[in-house]
Design brief:
seven-stranded mixed β-sheet, alpha/beta, about 20% strand, about 260 residues, Rossmann fold, 9 helices
Amino acid sequence: METMERDNRLIEPPRIRQRFARALPSYDNHAIAQQQITAEAAAMLQRTPRPFARCLEIGCGSGGFTRLLQQMLPEADWTLNDLCPESLSAAALHCPHSAHLVTGDAESAELGTGYDLIASTSAFQWFRHPQGFARKLATMQPPGGTLLFTTFLPGNLQEVKEITGRGLTYPSAGQWKEWLAHSYRIEVCREETIRLLFGNPLEVLRHLKYTGVTATGTGQWTRGMQADFIDRYNKQFSTGDNQVTLTYRPLYIQAIRR
């Protein structure tokens, strides 16, 4: 069985909650890649319509995916979860009728059981023990239940990790498939590359700050650290036409509980 080593020192729920709460007002205007991923996840669900009466969204964030899910399944009984209470309040505004809100780390929170649908976008990469969480997911769904989630793969934000030496360790698609295989039948497992272009490395840093992705960072950068980052980024990741790249590597998985 595939296992993985994670540097869980970078995954501290209190800091992650603080950074995403701070980014909440700016997130929707700057989360370009995340919005593309959310739209594709919603399209996947629409292509395989099933009756869903009881549904859970994990890591709802500002509510971008929540809004699309509610449009597709307005009559369902919904539970929303997020680490940040501020995000939960924002996401709940998209629900046509009252949703059950669960604040807290999905790995340890009591999320309930019996869900026909469990959905999540761009959240599972923050889990300290993703293999254990795959087992938890299975306990929350009856046979025939649908699991739909997106997360990120090795190579995600590779430019920043290469320069700073810091960043999350992401499970591979093969690892996720193996962890889920005992309890789920995989219908879709698809990798994608989204390469964003920015005018300069400072725009990259602002993008990361305004979307909360800097939740792995510690402390403040000095002027010298920032100057070194900008210089190395320009040298290593320039497109040659006065732009620089930032790469996202999403993974889409849709599966049925055995």
